[in-house]
Every structure is written in C-alpha cells, then in structure tokens.
Hints:
Distance between the termini: 20 Å
InterPro entries: FAD-bind_Monooxygenase_sf, FAD/NAD-bd_sf, Lys/Orn_oxygenase
CATH superfamily of the largest domain: FAD/NAD(P)-binding domain
Number of domains: 4
Strand content: 5-15%
CATH architecture of the largest domain: 3-Layer(bba) Sandwich
Keywords: FAD, Flavoprotein, NADP, Oxidoreductase
EC number: 1.14.13.196
Strand order of the largest sheet: 3-2-1-7-17
Pathway: Siderophore biosynthesis
Helix content: 25-40%
Organism: Echria macrotheca
Number of strands: 19
Structural class: alpha/beta
Radius of gyration: 29 Å
Bound molecules: flavin-adenine dinucleotide, NADP nicotinamide-adenine-dinucleotide phosphate
CATH topology of the largest domain: FAD/NAD(P)-binding domain
Largest sheet: 5 strands, parallel
Number of helices: 15
CATH class of the largest domain: Alpha Beta
Amino acid sequence: MATDIISNHAAFVAQKLDGLSIRETQLPVHTVPEPKTSEPEVQPPHHVTEPKPVAETSGFSYPKSRISLVDRFIDEPRALRVAVIGGGLAGVLAGVLLPAKVPNIQLTIYEKNHDFGGTWLENVYPGVRCDIPSHVYQATFEPKTDWSDQFAPGAEIRDYWQGVATKYGVHQYARFGHRVEELSWDEEASVWNITVHDLSTGETRTDTADFVLTAIGRFNAWKLPDYAGINEYRGILRHASHWDADFDVAGKSVAVIGNGASGIQLVANLQKVVGRLDHYARNKTWIAASWAGDERTLEPQPYTEEQKKEFASNPEVYLKFRKELEDKYWRRFGAFFRGSPDNAALRERFTEIMRQRLARKPELLERIVPDFSPNCRRLTPGPGYLEALAQDNVEYITTPIARFTGTGIVTTDGVERQVDAVFCATGANVDMVPPFAIRGRGGRTLRDVWDPKGGDRQFPYSYLGQATPGFPNLFFVHGPHGTGPSGTVPHSVENQLSMYARFLRKASREGIRSMEPLARAADEFVEYADAFFAATVLSDPCSSWYNGGRPGQRIHGVWPGSAGHVTAVRREPRWEDWEYTYLGPEGNRFAWYFGSGWTAKEADAGSDMTNYLKVPGEVDLRDLHESWWELPGVKSP
Ligand SMILES: Cc1cc2nc3c(=O)[nH]c(=O)nc-3n(C[C@H](O)[C@H](O)[C@H](O)COP(=O)(O)OP(=O)(O)OC[C@H]3O[C@@H](n4cnc5c(N)ncnc54)[C@H](O)[C@@H]3O)c2cc1C
Ligand SMILES: NC(=O)c1ccc[n+]([C@@H]2O[C@H](COP(=O)([O-])OP(=O)(O)OC[C@H]3O[C@@H](n4cnc5c(N)ncnc54)[C@H](OP(=O)(O)O)[C@@H]3O)[C@@H](O)[C@H]2O)c1
C-alpha cells in the first residue's frame, strides 16, 4: 500500500509539473529541515519525485519565495513527546484520552508511587471515603454499576481508577516509582528537560519532552505544621495523608489538628474507638447536611444487591438514575453569590442542622458556626462530626497551638495536653506552588512568580488556569481554577484534557515548536476573575484552599464561573490568546505545516475520499465538516 501511495503521488506530481510553465520559481527542494526538537518528529522524505526543471520562458516571471517547500504530507502529524506528571485520576484520564485524541503521541506518565490512584492510593486513614456520590465521582465514559455504597470507601475508589487504567491500557505509558524533581525549559531545542529520580535504583536522569502536563494534585504535597518543638515530640506523629496503619488507636489519647474535610472525617471516625480526643480547630466551619440533597450518614449506606443487579442489567434505568443524581451537582451555583437567597437559605438550614446535631452540647454551637457565609470554604457534610464533638471524650480546642513538647501540645494559654499520638489533618501546599522547580524562559521558576512570600505575583498567576506566560508547552491539569465551584471533578478533568488534546493536535499537525499564553491575556483573565469572585461568598473572610489559606487574597482554587461555564470555555480554545513559534524554514508558520501541498490519504487509491457522504439522516449539520478525525480519506471510527 505504501508503495502505491508513493508511486501514485509521484506520477500525479510529475504530471502536474509537466503541465506548468513556471519560471525561476522555487520548486520543491525536497529536504526536510532538521527540526530542533529531537527525532523522530518528522517523517523522512518519501513521496515527491525530483521535479523537472522548468524551462525558461521569456517575458514570464513569478515571485521568488524566501522559503523552500518541505517534503511532507499535511495529514502526517509529527510525533509529540508528551510527559504527564502524576498518576491520580487526572493522570489516568490523560492516559486514556490523550492517545485516543492525539495521533502520533508518545506519552509518558511519571508517578512517584508504585501504582495509579493518587489521592485514593495514599489516603488510608480511618473513614476515608468520598463525600460525592460514587455514581457521580467516576469517569463519564466508564460507569461502574456495582458501587458498594452511596459514598464509596477510599480503597474502592482506588480500585476503580486502577481498573480504568488496566482496561484502557494506560500502564504501558507509566513510569512508576519515578519522582520528577525538576523541569527545565531548553530554549534552543524547545523541549522540557525533566529530571527524574528513579526511587527503586536511586538514580537520577534527565528525560526530554516537547510538552509537559502537570497532574500532581492539589492535596498531594502534604506537610506537617512547623510548630516549635514538633521534632521533639516522642509519640506517634502523622499527617492524615500519611497514615500509620500499624498504630492501634483503640483506647489511646490522640490529638487531631485541623477541621478541613480530612480532620472532620478523622474526628468522626476516631472518636468511637479512642480513649480521649483533643480536636484543635483554629477557625470555625460550616457543616453541611449534604452536598446536593444526597443525605450522608456516618454508617455505611450500601446499595442492595437488587439495585446493583438492576443497574447492571438495565442500561436505561441506570442512565436515568445516573443523570438524575449527577444533574444536581450542576445546579448548586446560585448559592455561591453574596446576598443571594440561595446562600441565605443555606445559612439558615445549616445553622439549624448544626443546632440539632450539637443538641448534647449546645454551648459549642457559637464556637463552631462561622461568621463567613456557607460556601466560602469547601462544604463538608461531615456525618458524625458534630455528634462526635458532643461526646465526653472529645475536647474542642480553639486556643491556638503554641508549641509541642516531648509528650503533647501546649496552647497559647499555657495549657499542656499530653497525648499518645498527634494526627495533623493540616492539608497541603494550598499556595499551589509545585513542590519541585519548574524553570521556564530565562531560568525563572514558577515559584519565582507564584510564591505568596516574595513571588512576582504572589498567587498562582495563570491564563485560565491552563498555563502561565513564560512557561511554554506546559499545561496544568486540575491546577489553579481547575474545576467549577459546581460540577464534578472527573467531568472537569476530562474536559480540560480534551482541550489540551486540541492544543497538542494543533502543535503536532501544524509544526508548532512552542506555544505560551500572552501575558496580556493572562492579565485580563485575572481582572475578570477579580471582578467575578468579588461578587461571590468565596471572597468572604475565611481561610480555605480556594484562597491559599489567606483570607482576602485572590481565589485560585476554583474557576470564576459555573461548571457549565468552564465547560463552554474549554470547548473552544481562544488561539489568539497564545503566541507560537514554528518548525520549518525561516520560522514561516505555513512552511512545515502545509508541506508539499498534498494529503497522504488522497494519494492512496484505497482511501475513502468521500467519507463525508452518508446515508440521509446520519448527518448532524451542527457537526458537518468539523470533526478533526474525519478528513477525506480517513476511516471513520
Ligand atoms: C482525603 C481526600 C479526600 C477527597 N475526597 C474528595 C471527594 O469526596 N470528592 C471530590 O471531588 N474530591 C475529593 N478530594 C479531592 C481529590 O484530590 C480529587 O477529587 C482528585 O482525586 C484529584 O486527582 P488528581 O489526579 O488531580 O490528583 P491526585 O489524586 O492528588 O494525584 C496526583 C498524583 O501525582 C503524583 N505526583 C505528585 N508529584 C509528583 C512528582 N514530583 N513526580 C511524580 N509523581 C508526582 C502523586 O504521587 C499522585 O499520584 C479528596 C482529597 C483528599 C486528599
Ligand atoms: N471525601 C471527603 O470527605 C474529603 C476528605 C478529605 C479531603 N477532602 C477534599 O480535600 C480537600 C482538602 O481537605 P483537608 O482537610 O485535607 O485540607 P484543608 O481543607 O486545607 O484543611 C486543612 C485544615 O488544617 C488547618 N491547618 C492548616 N495548617 C495548620 C496549622 N499549622 N495549625 C493548625 N491548623 C492548621 C486548617 O486551618 P485553617 O482553616 O484555619 O487554615 C484547616 O482546618 C477538601 O476540601 C476536600 O476537597 C474530601
């Protein structure tokens, strides 16, 4: 078949050239300029015969081009080396979607752990489970009909994502046990140098990639607080994300620091088994009844065998159930606006619920109900949390921690409370500065720009949460502004990756060496976000990972708009907000892209050039002649 293509094509070109009487024009020179990126991006010359010289014709001339034609077909995209850092659900989805959507991709997924799963592999503390219904917190294209529980335990979620990776062959791209320690942009070669530490051999090496996607999670870089004396503490000291499964908490005296979702879940689950629990909460928090009317209890809420059987055997019933459940997660947006009736209703409802759940110790209510509005921090249903606080073996401590001793914690009022173990549910690097150096143009790091203490911008400055000026060919997955305040994480990540697939297709199709967002576009996005968030309760005075734990600072945890809004934005990239450099002679944007003027498919006698002709009724006019995979000659999937 390949020979046919070449000979047909060659014959056609020769015939064309014969019929032309062009004088002194730059005829195809049939050399492929060395791309500055490494092999094998460009196919070797293979399809155009040496042109016949054109006889001089007196009195006729044609403008002389600065460039020579590049000997390639337009529909043979260059191979792109793409590195994804992280194998949580975002990395798994990248491994499923990018190979399907980006022809010729050479994908590598670096993951420091021994397997996929991210959050759900690492977090194994008692009671860890989803607070979003299981049937909502799954890939849109890979439903699991037999979730055990309305809110699945962490291990089941881990198994699900590892199963998705297996089913879609994602393991072939994975480099497990490989921790990325630095990214450095090579200006000359237009590639990222990736310093990778192989945790099994202890070796460090440098790989290269044309594009890098960070999928490192928002809560993965957990850290212990830096209280004075913490290193002298001789009991068990653990972060919630680094649980010691061998430590038996039964009957022990323990401290839990932090009242984010992790701390809340831990307190509710430990209280029943420990002897005494000191809960340190330096700020108040709302406890929601549920996310979207899906009532939570501390006890398991299993699906019956009949329900699971019905979901598995009746796809229509399951789809209806799934759609109704998921629909509610798209509707919660109104309650994010300051002064809205929806938000006022939440305040009233949550206050009442908290009052009921604290009935055993009503004096706690005013110490827990916040002044800021519901939704300023991410809501947590917290089943069993308030009930646990109301028990006699729990002390709710709002006096700030001063220091640790060898045996316990001292608060600023001088009281020392001795405990066998301290569990820090103190969250992660909410400033979003990646835990390893990312050096962009001129050697400047993302930390130089984002660091709240001394960075140029002091917040995660970005263009639409996708990329940052000065850092070409680098996209953030589920990074700043990664999800809508409404919607679901898997849907958002799938959509963001699908948009990045378009970027990558464009780069490989058009011979783009580098692309980066314009600073002006990023600045205007920040202006928009400032105006938007000012109208919402997200900018109330609370500490949350939305604002990097700094009340009053810029919100970067979520998208400035609804989940439907960010989905619409991701569907149509604004190419004009990016600047590009190109492969090919003289940096001409068309030279490499347009190649010899041919498609490979049209020179293949066996291809279906009229695949756009279909049985009447099969054509959706909204999509007609727009699908990237359906150019004439390309087999429809
Ligand atoms: C305890 C807990 C419970 C949660 N519950 C919910 C919930 O109920 N609903 C919800 O919507 N969200 C929840 N979340 C948020 C959750 O993190 C996201 O929903 C989602 O799992 C994020 O997936 P991710 O792939 O973006 O990140 P992660 O799952 O964090 O994965 C990031 C991966 O990157 C890897 N990595 C990081 N740095 C490097 C490096 N330098 N080199 C190599 N690999 C690296 C990590 O090892 C990790 O595997 C929860 C978070 C936590 C911590
Ligand atoms: N499925 C679930 O139920 C579940 C469970 C866990 C996590 N999650 C997800 O993960 C996100 C992160 O949750 P998270 O609880 O791990 O982190 P988080 O929401 O950032 O909460 C961290 C908590 O630690 C406190 N803290 C931080 N540093 C401290 C210090 N030095 N001293 C005392 N307290 C300190 C914070 O207090 P301040 O508020 O005062 O800053 C806050 O209460 C959640 O919002 C949610 O999206 C979900």
